[in-house]
Structure formats: structure tokens, C-alpha cells
Design the sequence.
């Protein structure tokens, strides 16, 4: 995966998170805790990972992760990148 591909992947993941959480500007706030700030809950986490699979073709089973592993944009991007490498 090239740097451009990584940047595009990150950008696409951010767009998906912003869509599901109904918030803008997450690239600048990539360490914001999405759960404790009320943007993510268990239901829209399922929607988030479904959208990642549908849009990017990367299957991430939300049940594999503890909330602390996917509570920020950066952590979600990391999970998606790791799944892509599998």
C-alpha cells in the first residue's frame, strides 16, 4: 500500500465515521473519544463497521474489539488498516 493509498484509506474512514456520527471536523480531532462524547454507541458502531465493509470492502467484525480499542478516529483507522493487511 502506497502513502497515497494510506492517505485515501484514512480519509475514507474519517468520512464514514463523520457520516455515522453526524459530525464534521474529525480529522482535526482524531483522538476525541467518540463514545464518551456521545457520538458512538453500540448500535451505530455496528452501522460504522457495516459501512466500512460496504464502502471499502474491508470486513471488521465489531464484536472482536473492546470499546477502548475503537473509541477514537485514530484507533478505528488502525483497526481498518490491520484488517486490510490480513
Sequence:
Amino acid at each position: 500500500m502506497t502513502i497515497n493509498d494510506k492517505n485515501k484509506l484514512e480519509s475514507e474512514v474519517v468520512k464514514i465515521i463523520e457520516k455515522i456520527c453526524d459530525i464534521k471536523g474529525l480529522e482535526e480531532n482524531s483522538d476525541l473519544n467518540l463514545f464518551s462524547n456521545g457520538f458512538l454507541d453500540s448500535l451505530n458502531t455496528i452501522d460504522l463497521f457495516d459501512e466500512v465493509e460496504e464502502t471499502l470492502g474491508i470486513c471488521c467484525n465489531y464484536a472482536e474489539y473492546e470499546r477502548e480499542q475503537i473509541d477514537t478516529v485514530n484507533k478505528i483507522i488502525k483497526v481498518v488498516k490491520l484488517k486490510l493487511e490480513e
Summary: Helices lie at 3-21, 42-56, 73-85. The chain has one domain: 3-85. Residues 3-21 form the longest helix (19 residues).
